[in-house]
Amino acid sequence: MANQDDSFIREVNDELRSDQMRGVWTRFGGIIIAIAVLIVLGTIGKVVYEYWRESSASKSGDAFLAALTLAKDNKTDEAMAAFDALEKDGFGSYPVLARMRAATLQAQKGDAAAAIAAFSEISKDNSVNAALRDAARVRAAYLLVDTGTYEQVSAEVEQLAVPQNGLRHSAREALGLAAYKAGDMAKAKGWFQQIADDAQSPRNLANRAQMLLDLITASGKAS
What we know:
The protein is an all-alpha fold. The chain has 9 helices and no strands. The model has no long low-confidence stretch (mean pLDDT 81).
């Protein structure tokens, strides 16, 4: 008898749970399905986006390498056209890299003014990664050593010639060269000495700085 009672109670409980579930499903079934669909769509969307991102980056990378090859083969006009197309339609950092390489080609063609303007424009573009903006400043500064004044070089890179900046070595060299060219040996010596004294200065750059320090000392013009 006890066994029959237990069986009956279990059947009643099962029916109650079944009725409760039917009630819950009647009230919230549509919402549950909608949430499930959203989760699935979200997962699919993420996968599709990652695929698009990877394929776009790969496509832009291939286009960038092709343009570099054209430049290396001295097919300057074709390379410029390829970089221009990549600047307009490229993915990720490739458009700004294309802008920088195009500016370098302009400098190689002898149009330093256009190259400097391009690098300066990149350095002021807040949509560009900060490291790339700083690199553009340094490129503009080196070109200005030959074509501009010390003040112009300083305006580009003196803000980078500080201990915490990774491009400080190149910035100091550009400033030192500009000062040397301008005949301000005391200022040039100061910048080159900072390079020589910095234990993290690249060896080739430190060697150039030391050579110029020796020349300045021999000239006797930096008292």
